[in-house]
Give the backbone structure.
Amino acid sequence: MDRSIWNSLISKLPNPHFLQTYEWGQVKAKYGWEPVYLVWDRDGKMRDIKSGSDLSSLAFYPSAAALVLKRKILSAGFAARLSVLYAPKGPLLDWANEPLRSRVLDDLQSFAKRQGAIFLKLDPDVQVATGVPASEENVINPQGQLFISLLKRRGWQYSNDQIQFRNTVLIDLQASEEEMLTRMKQKTRYNIRLAEKKGVTLRVGTVGDLPMLYRMYAETSVRDGFVIRDEGYYRTVWETFMGSTASTGNSQVPAFKYFDFPSCEPIIAEVDHEPVAAIFVFYFAGRAYYVYGMSRNAHREKMPTYLLQWEAMKRAKAHGCTTYDLWGAPDVFDKSDSMWGVYRFKEGLGGKVVRTSGAWDFAPSSLWYKMYSEFIPRILDVMRSRGRAKTKQSLGA
């Protein structure tokens, strides 16, 4: 399959996302998932684009599309045909188009049954509201509420396993830099200036920086108490998306713009040439995403993370992006939520809270779904515990 054509096709659809790109499918293919690329033509007919297919002959832009990840549960025995399916941030379509919406959901449900799926998980970026609940900024989106009602009528279940963040914070990059600074909280602007005054410098990372960046990420995970994967996984993600842009190490914004193909770059903050913090920013179809952030304890009082975010906003704007997605906000907007501290930092950057429908599961067999839902969380708890221990061990802790 021609990756550039797939990415170009989905970039024309509503809310295109880098987790629906060809590259993300190839990343997951290295870790036990089979990527399935589905498109719906203008007549609403679903087509399964096989690996190796030439899409250049397609004389249409699809009305909908979905990268669906498939994973077999067992390789032998009675349950060998069973699988789980997941369309990360998909499918992509105009959800206000009722005939198309019904056709796509009908086809996906039939597809799940044919694949022997225990469940099919969807988590498209369908907005149900903006602003913090019960605040003056809270605005309900009737279309999003209708979408949830539709899924319930069809027998879909709100998933106990929310892979992606349900809520996020978006920053409008169409404003001028002066306007973006004005939208920030005063303390955020102060910390940006403080970082500049205290000698924090920034540079775009290279592939050669990845071992150092992973170690910093591991240090961050141990300090802040979250679980990460092994280095090989992140190297696969980063190298797949970085391409030639970051490998040059050039901090100047390149002439091209991120629309029909995805990319990412690490931005590194240094004090006296010592890396102290970094972020990875992904780009696709006019949107930038802050996906990974890492920092060391050294020089935290110099506020390097604030300067990193400001630089990311400026670079994304210069690349032609109109939105910067800060990748995650609390489910519950108070101190009880584990995301609260991170959210307060993001809130200071002047963005808007966007609440989406979250992940929903279609289960062809309620029995298999119940068994899987009860068994897998126990396995994940064990894996997370082992993951924490392994990360600490790799750091010599």
